Amino acid sequence: xxxxxxxxxxxxxxxxxxxxxxxxxxxxxxxxxxxxxxxxxxxxxxxxxxxxxxxxxxxxxxxxxxxxxxxxxxxxxxxxxxxxxxxxxxxxxxxxxxxxxxxxxxxxxxxxxxxxxxxxxxxxxxxxxxxxxxxxxxxxxxxxxxxxxxxxxxxxxxxxxxxxxxxxxxxxxxxxxxxxxxxxxxxxxxxxxxxxxxxxxxxxxxxxxxxxxxxxxxxxxxxxxxxxxxxxxxxxxxxxxxxxxxxxxxxxxxxxxxxxxxxxxxxxxxxxxxxxxxxxxxxxxxxxxxxxxxxxxxxxxxxxxxxxxxxxxxxxxxxxxxxxxxxxxxxxxxxxxxxxxxxxxxxxxxxxxxxxxxxxxxxxxxxxxxxxxxxxxxxxxxxxxxxxxxxxxxxxxxxxxxxxxxxxxxxxxxxxxxxxxxxxxxxxxxxxxxxxxxxxxxxxxxxxxxxxxxxxxxxxxxxxxxxxxxxxxxxxxxxxxxxxxxxxxxxxxxxxxxxxxxxxxxxxxxxxxxxxxxxxxxxxxxxxxxxxxxxxxxxxxxxxxxxxxxxxxxxxxxxxxxxxxxxxxxxxxxxxxxxxxxxxxxxxxxxxxxxxxxxxxxxxxxxxxxxxxxxxxxxxxxxxxxxxxxxxxxxxxxxxxxxxxxxxxxxxxxxxxxxxxxxxxxxxxxxxxxxxxxxxxxxxxxxxxxxxxxxxxxxxxxxxxxxxxxxxxxxxxxxxxxxxxxxxxxxxxxxxxxxxxxxxxxxxx
Amino acid sequence: xxxxxxxxxxxxxxxxxxxxxxxxxxxxxxxxxxxxxxxxxxxxxxxxxxxxxxxxxxxxxxxxxxxxxxxxxxxxxxxxxxxxxxxxxxxxxxxxxx
Lengths: 749, 98
What we know:
- The complex is a heterodimer.
- Helix content of chain A is 43%, strand content 26%.
- Chain A is an alpha+beta fold.
- An eight-stranded mixed barrel of chain A has the order 22-23-25-26-27-28-29-30, surrounded by four helices. In chain A, strands 4-3-7-6-5 form a five-stranded antiparallel β-sheet.
- Chain B is an alpha+beta fold.
- At the A-B interface, helix 1, strand 1, strand 2, strand 4 and helix 10 of A face helix 1, strand 3 and strand 5 of B.
């Protein structure tokens, strides 16, 4: 059960990890392709948005400065971009306009004309007057000037809209030169214009900031010594002055217009995205324009995202990916230098309880605290990683031997043990640690982690808050479970199972009233096995359903055979497995078996345990209701060991409780057990339930139970579980003698 | 705007940063995708993280623009300005023949 739960949790964590990795990969790809231009940076003072410099193209400044409304459309009228003036004309917000169609804002009477105009614009430039329909329902007369151009190779239409209600725009017009200067200097990118030889003829303020001096008249490569791919890379070829292509082809060897370059500035390295283009007047080449955007921040963001993909967000520790990487490296290094290495897997004890009862926020603080304490326990060069959930791994490189790992493990147990204060709670958290060493316990990262996990599991079994080294034996017991599973499968096909019957006796009359059917496995080599040895493996492998169905059928069939041979009818109790109980078809299965074996339902009793009825209350109660209605009785086994209350159990159609043998065992010596047993018997009487005491072995126990007026008893005092043949003999002699004496009969056997 | 409670409505949250080039492109591209593939069955919420940076955490936004498909579940994210239509449609898992 627990194992499948952790498997589920692991599976879930893996999925989550995969999803986060995919997202990080996609983010990286989007950055590389330039599909994003801003980032959210998580800081101590909350989250902040960091824009990539160069995200604002220079034309934006021009367009925003315009007194006229301007917009860029697709040929079908979809608005790709517009300036503030345009949105004001429409009386809408920027975000509301982008991506919508222009026709939504054109007065119905002008719709046809507007569509005609747009269609005609495909052939050139077009001008028209029409009315906008604003967001507030008002109309606005505008003068539209449309022209066709291309953007990224696709046809687009640019619109300039002049508000005809205002005629103030004249005064806002700036002289061409002044505007050009303004745009150049406002641009976030460094813009440098050079003549054919590479001497700067014009540059903006951003370029001067980048170079740390004025550029006019100087050579581009003297002011901006660029590097590319680790090498100095001049923009101009001075060997052949005037041959502009040579220099600039070198800049963009693959024909790309932009190139990643770097520039040393004050001992730091700035990352720049550089694009270049020729300047022509007619056919005469004037020189070159360079645009340099600072993408240092983008680079830093990429680095940050790489860090994110390799680290756990909550604790900042390396995650599984980075751990595996380091483990691989560590193993390679240790292999070469013939050194040892230890992998410790650490799982917090009962951490789930903290999360469930105090909330994830408290749990998160605990994890962060543990992460910090763990990091304090290790040397530089070692690694603490969080695998997810409450699992941590400590990687110790270059150790002398297991003793070193043991010492560190003790240190960790000691350091983690201190109380953790979270809000009003003082929490004590302990870890269970499993240790696997290279080369003794494996030489592969996965094997080492698996073995450390096995050792950790052993530490949990040994009472937690301790560490265990991996041993060969652990693998063997895991192998043994596997072997057992295979043997079970074989047992089913080769009919190695057998049903035994243990009598249940009416304490008052001494009459045999019922029997419990018990499973035995006759293994050809291992001998006869009781369910305790193999039932957990049967549950893990799912074979339990087949096996318990077989027991149910065999017991019913046998009971009917005895009745057919003239023996007195007794009720036979069969244990239900949790897996069977969960099957909605259980009532039909029971009915089918009864029909096939022709056994009357009142000769069958189904036993369940307390813990089984605690889960899926509703479904189970419906299922059991159907079974009880058919006449089969239902009893609760091992009563007193679970946590169910009697009121709770009353929701089920239960007719009998069986007091667990652990109470009966010490009933004579232990006043507590006596009191509990007495209380259960009394309660059963009140609730009109029958009661059976299990595990009765001595005359003293019998006397005690008789005094408490317990109804039925079962145990070695009467008989151990008997084979079919033995039980048949018992039935026969019991039927023959109404004054059957159990003790005499036993000694006579 | 469509009725969010009605069945089969695609709910999108688009995280942008002011009027950056990619943000503007993302808005336009998202509206285009919706008009073309999800007419009458979509709802778009645009969240400007320059105004409200604190809202990034809810959907663990790192890079901007990022589009989040809130419904139908499972949630999906597409990072970038959606200019690669094919990638956007695949990323959003829209029931359209491409």
